[in-house]
Amino acid sequence: MSSIDRYDDIGRIEKYDADMDVMHPNRGKMADIALDFLAGLNAAPIRVLDLGCGTGFVAERLAQRFSGVNITCLDGAQNILDLAKSRLEKHNNRIVYKCSDFRELAGLELEPASFDAVVSSYALHHLNAAEKVDVLRECRELLVPGGLLFNADLVKNESPEFETRIQDLRVEGILERAGAGDERFANKAETHAYLGEMERAEGDQPLDVEADLALFREAGFSHVSVLWLEYREAVICAQN
Ligand SMILES: C[S@@+](CC[C@H](N)C(=O)[O-])C[C@H]1O[C@@H](n2cnc3c(N)ncnc32)[C@H](O)[C@@H]1O
């Protein structure tokens, strides 16, 4: 099953946002960091591409924050894109939806240099390094000169020992937030096992931060920076 198939699975996605609150409580903060940065640099972002938009969590924040924004929400899974459409109903006059694999951006015939910013949240870690460079190159083609790409995503620690400790801290946090009653998070061992199985099923392959930054540079971006990093989550900004 591919990462896209997993997000077409109604059983998985109907609990998706609630699960994200338990498993990734920094998601809102990470999106806000990207949008704060974008707001400060550009008078008003006009055209934004959201890669792997999922249920529209980031797109909703964008639409609420920038009254003139036009958003292209792209995701490979039609069922999760439908959830985004209903979440974003009142903004839908400013949103275009595209159901496509983001590894095939080139085939979508999006106009070159037609976006002021590209945002992506918890999506690009599904790609291997070669795929990721290709997607980043395509994003550069789509960005105006000086346009910004924000990737709020998972990273792994380059030290296996540190990674083990970080995973333990992650599980402790999940157990606190999940409370009683969720069998997936009954105890530490169950939680580690559930997360491991989920990450295998979804083909997660996060990179360490240095390797990740190198891919953005390889794709031709300049001013590649980590705006925020905590344990295994980072917000990277790169300029075309
Ligand atoms: C973990 S969710 C993140 C959703 C949303 N951006 C968020 O922050 O909540 C990952 C999303 O990326 C999409 N995705 C994964 N691989 C993809 C690919 N190759 N092409 C297009 N979408 C993909 C999935 O369908 C899913 O909706």
Account of the 3D structure:
This protein is of the alpha/beta class. The chain has 2 domains: 3-157 and 204-239, Rossmann fold (3-Layer(aba) Sandwich); 160-199, no CATH class. Helices cover 45% and strands 21% of the residues. It contains 10 helices and 7 strands. It has helices spanning 3-6, 10-13, 16-23, 27-41, 57-65, 78-87, 129-142, 160-178, 188-201, 209-218, and strands spanning 47-51, 70-75, 95-99, 115-121, 143-154, 222-230, 233-239. Helix 4 (27-41) packs parallel to helix 5 and helix 7 packs across helix 10 (209-218). It is globular, with a radius of gyration of 17 Å. It binds S-adenosylmethionine (SAM). Residues 3-4, 7, 20, 27, 52-54, 57-58, 75-77, 80, 101-103, 121-123, 126 line the site of S-adenosylmethionine.
Features:
240 residues; alpha/beta; Rossmann fold; 2 domains; 10 helices; binds S-adenosylmethionine
Task: Summarize the helices and strands and which ones pair or pack.
Elements: H1 3-6, H2 10-13, H3 16-23, H4 27-41, E1 47-51, H5 57-65, E2 70-75, H6 78-87, E3 95-99, E4 115-121, H7 129-142, E5 143-154, H8 160-178, H9 188-201, H10 209-218, E6 222-230, E7 233-239
Parallel strand pairs: 1-2, 1-4, 2-3, 4-5
Antiparallel strand pairs: 5-7, 6-7
Helix pairs in contact: 4-5, 7-10
